[in-house]
Amino acid sequence: MKIGNFNIENNVFLAPMAGITDKTYRNICRSFGAGMVYSEMISAKGLHYNDKKTAALMDVEGESPCAIQIFGSEPEIMAEVVLKVMRYGPDVIDINMGCPAPKIVNNGDGSALMRTPERMGRIMRAVSDASPVPVTAKIRKGWDSDNSLLCAHILEENGAAAVAVHGRTRGEFYSGRADWDAVKKIKSELKIPVIGNGDIFSARDAAAMFEYTGCDAIMVARGAKGNPWLFKQIDELMREGAVRTMPTPEQRLELALRHTEMLVAAKGEGRGIKEARKHIAWYIKGMRSAAAIKTEIFKISDFATMNSTLQAYIDNIL
After folding, report:
1. For the chain, where are the alpha helices, taking DSSP H only?
2. Are residues 268 and 230 in the same domain?
């Protein structure tokens, strides 16, 4: 598929998730076959005021195809920071218009923008006019009712190269089932690519999303937590008609340990171990004695102890 003039061969993407899809996890998911990855969402205001922590999130070197996702609600500032974003070499700039988190929507950003479709259009026009690479947007079904088709049309009319649609309103957060009809409806009317998002937890979910909605690509979010194998499984099902890759408990723990090592190397021991804890908990979910080991993991603050704890757990479950 093409986003603007940029060609992407693999149409199964890793969604942007704050605090999760850092460079380390993006690289892990790419190694399992993610077709495009997205940075964690980045504050346009943070970039405007030269916040160093904000800028650090934009390291996408060696990750092509990769999108940097920005969020904000002021068209002028959003357009102004494009120059700063482009210094990091993204293939695509994505605008977050769907995040439901209170700290985001309380500032009028994320899914709060779906209450003002006209502003969404002005932001898209400003950013797309300023950007030398394709600009896309990620939206939800709506704020508290479905206005996603209207919003999608406005985005397309104002230069969007593609739209990702999560089939829940902001009010629903992540409850219930995602409404894939919203994705299907938008796909049937837009000329630009539509990316389906919501409730893709297995390869069969991915195949069903493609078949039901006709979407051009899918975006895997929560289903990828602790399960980067999902990208390989989706590819196997789509290409060969069956899933062959089923990670063993040992493989899950070995990757959890490698992920921890990578985080420590990238961010230092203290921060790396702290951030690794949640990932390890996702890797071991559903395994024997997972609850007990999870409690223990969240008390650990150094790599040596984490390493010995996970090695002992591997030995225990084999």
Report:
1. 23-31, 44-48, 52-56, 75-80, 82-86, 102-105, 117-130, 148-157, 180-189, 203-213, 229-240, 249-267, 269-283, 290-297, 303-317
2. no
Whether 99 is a known active-site residue: answer yes
At 149, the amino acid letter reads L
Range of the domain at 263: 249-317
Q: Is 247 exposed, middle or buried (0-12, 13-18, 19+ CB in 10 A)?
A: middle
Among 66, 99, 151, 215, the active-site one is 99
Residue 263 sits in the same domain as residue 234 = no
Which tens digit of pLDDT belongs to each residue from 196-214? 999 999 999 999 999 999 9
Q: Is 271 helix (H, G, I), strand (E, B) or coil?
A: helix
> 217-254 pLDDT, tens per residue?
999 999 999 999 999 999 999 999 999 999 999 999 99
